[in-house]
Amino acid sequence: MLVQTVAATMASLVLRLMFGRQHELASVTVPAPGGSIFQSLVLEFIITFYLMFVVMAVATDDRAVGQMAGLAVGGTIMLNALFAGPVSGASMNPARSIGPALVSNKFRALWVYIFGPFAGAAAGAWAYNLIRHTDKTLAEVTKSASQTNAS
Where are the membrane-spanning stretches (predicted)? Predict the structure, then answer.
C-alpha cells in the first residue's frame, strides 16, 4: 500500500510539474466527487466489491484460472469506470486518491475513497469465500492453482 501511495503521489507531482494546476481536471476523485458524498461512497463500495469478487474468482479458484483472467479483471475495471466514473471517479484504490490529494492539498472527500474501497474489498472477498463451494481450504485451493499455472 505504501509503494502504491508513493507512486501515485509521484505521478501527481509529475503532472503538476508538466501542466501546473490544469491537471486537476483529470485527477477525477480530488478535490470532490461528481456525485454526492453518499452516492460516491456507495458506488466506491459496490465497484470495489465487484472488482474484488472477480479478482478472487480468477486468482484463488482453480476452477476459474485460465487465459481470460486478465480480460475478466480488466473488463470489470472498464465497466466500473464507465458506470461509476461520472459520479465518483471510480477510484477502486485508496492510493489512487491519496496521491493526488497530497499533491493538491485537498482532502475534502478523501475519506470516501479510503473507506469505500476498503469496505468493498473486504465484503467482496468475504462474499466470494462464502459462495465458493469446495471442500479444500483456501491454502489448498491457491496451492493447486499455482501448481496448475506452473505446468
Answer: 36-59, 71-90, 110-131
Interval 111-117 mean pLDDT: 93
The CA-atom distances, in angstroms, between 8 and each of 55, 79, 102, 150 are 22, 22, 10, 32
- Count Cβ atoms below 10 Å from residue 26 Cβ, excluding itself: 9
Residue 20 in 3-state DSSP?
helix
The model's pTM is 0.77
What is the rounded distance in angstroms from the CA atom of residue 65 to the CA atom of residue 7? 29
Q: Which residue type sits at 36?
A: S
Cα 34 to chain centroid distance, Å, stands at 18
The helix (H) or strand (E) run that includes residue 85 is: helix 69-88
